[in-house]
Amino acid sequence: MHTSSELKEYQNIINGNSSPVSSGKMMDSIDPATGKAWAKIPLSTVEDVERVTASARGAFAAWSSLPARVRGDYLRQIGDMLDEHGEELLNLETRNNGWVRDNYNYLNIVMKQLWYEAAGTASNMGSHGKTVQMGRDNFGYTLRKPYGVVLGILPWNAPLFTFTIKAAYALAAGNTVIIKPSEHAAVASLRYGELLSEILPPGVINVISGFGSDIGDALVSHKEVNKVSLTGSKATAEAITKASAGSPKSLIFELGGKSPNIVFQDADIDKAVNGLINGIFTRNSGQICVAGSRILIERAIFDEVLLRMKEKIQDSYIKFGNTLNTENTMGPIANLPQYNKVISYIKIGQEEGAELVFGGRSGGSILLPGDSDYADGYWVEPTLFKANTNTLRICQEEIFGPVAVAVPFDSEKEAIEIANDTSYGLAAGVWTTDLARAHRMVDKIEAGNVWVNTYGIVGADLPFGGFKESGYGTDSILDYTQEKTCVIDFN
């Protein structure tokens, strides 16, 4: 085991260089699979905020003035770079947040695709404007212009993905970028920023690590920051809104969810059971904003679906252990505060009278013999409750862990009512072989993303956003540009 002084230290990335923090203070990064420190990250101060904002602002004029195709060429180089360094980054992220490695899908389909897509979008940015004949002698048109300095605030659950989707499209549009990762999972982002700074001009991409309580307000309220994109919690969104009130700026909020995964009697049950399990358990342990944490099942098949889920879970479908081993299928909770929160909700569900179908154990007791190296990690079993009402706290509040609740329904109308009976509106799943019903459900469910006979499919080809308290705006090139109108009198 490493002592604290032997741990590798990562630094902020400012103006194209690794930059020690002004205070010299560092903190341990904890591997959630083992519960032990494995690296050290910087704790920035307001002085570092001034340096990073000056860096991004100083690079903006030259970067935004580049032809869009040239910016696109830079972004393609980043996509190519992932062939060499992608595995390194995935290893760092797994040590950060405990997600089990998924090399092909995450690296190739998500990260690389986003950079290449953003590169192509940059070249086509001019096509998003419009022209209007205002009158016989007046001609109007619109242009899309970058905001300036964009601040991307990342969650701890998926830093590489959220870093990519925020930076790629903001850069494509001509903005310069500051990334603020979570202090719970900063290593992968710091290294990512270092690799990107070797490709991009100095100051175009910057990464600053530290506690939100120390540097968050200073970043979002800074006069040199023109747009803020957050993937995180409602509480953080509220704090950003208040902090930025004195220096108003455009905001993108991708927040939480309490997503319904709805199974009708006519569904392909085997396919649906796989979708239910993979929608809340497995690789990320339910620590994803679109997790299908409310499982709504038509009453006629309610018991059968729950039984099939239990049998599949108990038949070695879930494998714990080394998160770098892709043969394992479920990781730990990403950090100790979140681990304690998840455990508290399992107790709340039992106190509310929900019936435990399976799971509920935590800690080293769930590991297989021989996995003692991981006995101090933040492990929680796949846990499923069933309830007869959607009013319980475990039905209404985002747990952000491998804990789901199943609720029966008797009609399509009731399924829609239960699905929409939440303050969130991020995602939903529908399992049915009735095409007309599928279209009705897509129309009536209040969510920014609805999947039919699949779950959780995202990519560069479609926008991703939420309704209600799940946020607004999307990390797309249009949301990273502002519209300018011009009218010319040519008489």
From TrEMBL:
It comes from the Bacteria. The keyword Disulfide bond does not apply. Residues 24-482 form the Aldehyde dehydrogenase domain. The keyword Oxidoreductase applies. InterPro entries: Ald_DH/histidinol_DH, Ald_DH_C, Ald_DH_CS_GLU, Ald_DH_N, Aldehyde_DH_dom. The active site is at residue 254. Keywords: Oxidoreductase. Belongs to the aldehyde dehydrogenase family. This is Aldehyde dehydrogenase family protein. The lineage of its organism: Bacteria, Bacillati, Bacillota, Bacilli, Bacillales.
